[in-house]
Write a structure and sequence with these properties.
- The complex is a heterodimer of chains A (95) and B (282).
- Chain A is of the alpha/beta class and 95 residues long.
- Chain A contains three helices and five strands; from the N terminus they run E-E-H-E-E-H-E-H.
- In chain A, helix 1 (17-29) packs parallel to helix 2 (47-62).
- In chain B, strands 1-3-2-4-5-6-7 form a seven-stranded mixed β-sheet, with helices on both faces.
- Chain B has helices spanning 17-23, 87-100, 113-124, 153-165, 167-179, 185-197, 200-212, 216-219, 239-248, 264-267, 269-280; strands at 27-29, 36-40, 62-65, 106-111, 129-135, 226-232, 252-260.
- Chain B is of the alpha/beta class and 282 residues long.
- Classes of the chains: A alpha/beta (95), B alpha/beta (282).
């Protein structure tokens, strides 16, 4: 992985979301361009996690940068799809 | 959008006074002769969203609350697919309520999309309004050349498609995101329940009208002093949009609240109330 890929694993819920925002903002501040989030190990994502990712996305857009989620598993992918946020969060095609 | 948005369009479809009060579930409190304040809710909400803010003003204002067509306790028959195919139709509803109650020198307080609805109403009938308060406004949600609305065309396409195909699922997941304040899940839950009380078909159409509107050019035509209230970490109306609104309105006052999320009227009602009171009483 290159240095613009953020590894996101485990469960992102109400407890983990604030830490995620902080951590990703720190990561983004040390990189340039699109921030790719590798979600291969992400097993759970609730609305708190979605909110966290959107906050990071907003920050990046203010800097004319984007977020891109790759390797999203079925369960968290379904959450993103129900909310219609696939395009917003730059989710890649399944497979 | 353009002048055509607020052109001569009230010849057809206007409701008579009694109808307007009943149809839009209008509730009035406060002294009869006091200056009126009209509170308008946003997409997916109803007048309950003002319950922590509006009562503060009822001691010295005539406080008017109502539900837009398709929301809360409004008569389902109040919704007209043609009339409500643009925000101007919703502005007409506001003007009908003002006429029915004989309101003059109104301070209009609009949350989210209602901020722009209030702007259109004030442009159409300037003599009716004294001041506007915009809470979390956005004149255009989709990015454009030289303008960052926060969403792309593709974002909105997918959002609306999801909302249309699974409204309840979309509501349950999106309401907490719109509300922000993840550490206070009861707020997101309340908004979820409010979404669920909204007629899904009308919600879908209202969302379409809301998210595809472009009222940037109207901002310069707002004829009254206007307070723009902007929250932090607002997933719907980011700070840059608030600044755009501030700069485009001739007589604007801009306040950035400490509140986070798109609904400070629920999540930070005291701060919201204080900011509105300072502007209204100035």
């Amino acid at each position: 992985m290159d240095n613009t890929t953020y590894q996101l694993g485990g469960e992102v819920d109400l407890v983990a979301a604030p830490r995620l925002v902080e951590d990703m903002r720190g990561f983004a501040s040390q990189t340039t361009g699109t921030v790719v989030v590798d979600c291969a190990e992400l097993s759970f994502l609730d609305s708190s996690g979605i909110d966290a990712l959107l906050r990071v996305d907003r920050m990046l857009r203010d800097e004319r940068r984007r977020l891109r989620l790759v390797h999203l598993q079925d369960t968290p992918r379904r959450v993103v799809e129900i909310l219609g946020l696939g395009a917003t969060l730059g989710v890649d095609e399944p497979g | 959008v353009t002048a055509s948005t607020v052109g001569p369009r009230r010849a057809a479809g206007s409701l008579d006074g009694v109808d307007a009060i009943a149809r839009f579930n209008v509730h009035v409190t406060g002294p009869a002769g006091a200056p009126p304040m009209l509170f308008a809710h946003g997409f997916g909400c109803d007048q309950n969203m003002w319950r922590f803010v509006a009562p503060h003003f009822a001691s010295n204002h005539r406080v008017v609350l109502f539900d837009f067509a398709g929301a809360g306790g409004a008569d389902p028959a109040a919704y007209d697919a043609i009339r409500h195919s643009s925000l101007a139709g919703y502005a007409d509803d506001v003007l009908d309520i003002c006429a029915a109650l004989h309101l003059e020198d109104v301070t209009f307080v609009g949350h989210s999309v209602s901020a722009m609805i209030g702007a259109l109403a004030a442009i159409a009938e300037p003599a009716r309004f004294a001041k506007l308060v915009m809470v979390g406004p956005s004149p255009r949600y989709i990015d454009d050349e030289g303008y960052v609305g926060g969403f792309t065309d593709a974002d909105i396409d997918e959002l609306l498609e999801s909302l249309a195909s699974n409204y309840l699922g979309w509501s349950a997941g999106m309401a907490p995101v719109i509300m922000g304040n993840a550490d206070r899940p009861e707020l997101g839950q309340e908004l979820t329940e409010s979404f669920c009380r909204t007629d899904p078909d009308i919600a879908r159409r209202f969302a379409e009208v809301t998210f595809r509107s472009d009222n940037r050019a109207d901002l310069a035509r707002i004829p009254v002093p206007t307070l723009v209230l902007q929250s932090h970490e607002d997933a719907i109306a980011p700070i840059g949009v608030g600044e755009f609104v501030r700069d485009a309105i001739p007589q604007s006052t801009y306040v950035v609240l400490d509140a986070v999320g798109h609904c400070p009227n629920l999540s930070a009602p005291d701060e919201t109330t204080d900011a509105i009171a300072a502007f209204v009483d100035a």
